[in-house]
Amino acid sequence: MESGDYLVRGMVGTRLKPIDLKLVDITLDRLFEKLGVPHSGEDLFARNVARGRDHGIASYTTYRQFCGLGQAANFDDLRNAMPDEAIESFRQVYASVHDIDLYVGGLAEKVLPGALVGPTLACIIAFQFLNSKRGDRFWYENKEAGFSYVQLHAIRSTASFANIMCENMAENFDHSIPPQALRLPCNRKNPLIPCSRLHKLDLNLWAEKPTFLPKPCTYMSTVYRPGAPVSVSPCLACVCHADGKVGGERGAWRVSNLLQCKPVHRGCEYPGLDEYCKLFCDEGVYRN
User: Do 19 and 63 reside in the same domain of the chain?
Assistant: First the structure.
């Protein structure tokens, strides 16, 4: 298992190659190649094009129109969507712009900012994920899944791909991994941290008799769910704390047993200062 761990950790820190029409040689004419048998391999690119045609997938321009990206009457209409080099290659291969295969046209598109694919493939992928989510009545956020609000809150606040990787790697090492595991490590925005520092999912919330149940907060006769913001003062940012504890962070203030608050800088000249604002000013917590 340890060798697999090193492989996964290496992939986390390796920059992905750009997605375009340039494929590595091993996938061109050498796919499933038989050892010692020349010219026995296949072409992955040609295979994918053939798959699309066998399944009757519509053309690239049809999906562009479906995604609201406008109609393309000729090859020149694609100049904003893909490089000129790709367009000129398509002129030589396809008789009409409407003959471009979806797989080929999608790979040729200029990628969206911060994405790996262009607008047409991004639209199709997003649409498919949305349908999968809405069409599955047992999707974890749907009522049929049976999760309580507290359980959903725990999943949303702790579940991550980084956690999944850490939970499945060898236990005798405290591996380091970026919190956003699908993004490259970055000292400032996505630093490598030990797995032990990642927040763990509290499985006690799924026990038949949980050892701990987060309490709601009551303030001024109003009940707040754990994690919900609570309006106390214009000079305080308060949250209903799920575990009923007031954090020991510097600058944290305690209004009630279940609220965690921090001063909000309003300035001592702010009109309508209440008791908390005046307290901060008197103690010099902040000044204009």
Answer: yes
* One domain for residues 107 and 182: no
For the chain, the domain total comes to 3
Residues 134-149, mean pLDDT to the nearest whole number? 88
**Position 115 in a domain:** yes
Share of the chain above pLDDT 70, in %: 85
Q: Is residue 262 part of a domain?
A: yes
Range of 99's domain? Answer: 10-135
What is the three-state SS of the chain?
Answer: CHHHHHHHHHHHCCCCCCCCCCCCHHHCCCECCCCCCCCCCECHHHHHHHHHHHCCCCCHHHHHHHCCCCCCCCHHHHCCCCCHHHHHHHHHHCCCHHHCCHHHHHHHCCCCCCCCCCHHHHHHHHHHHHHHHHHCCCCCCCHHHCCCHHHHHHHHHHCCHHHHHHHCCCCCCCCEECCCCCCCCECCCECCEEHHHCCCCCHHHHCCCCCCCCCCEEECCEEECCCCEECCCCCEEEEECCCCCCCCCCCCECCCCCEEEEECCCCCCCCCCCHHHHHHHHCCCCCC
Same structural domain, 89 and 187: no
Q: Is the pLDDT of residue 217 over 50?
A: yes
Model confidence pLDDT, tens digit, residues 42-91: 888 889 999 999 999 999 999 999 999 988 999 999 999 999 999 999 99
- State if pTM tops 0.85: no
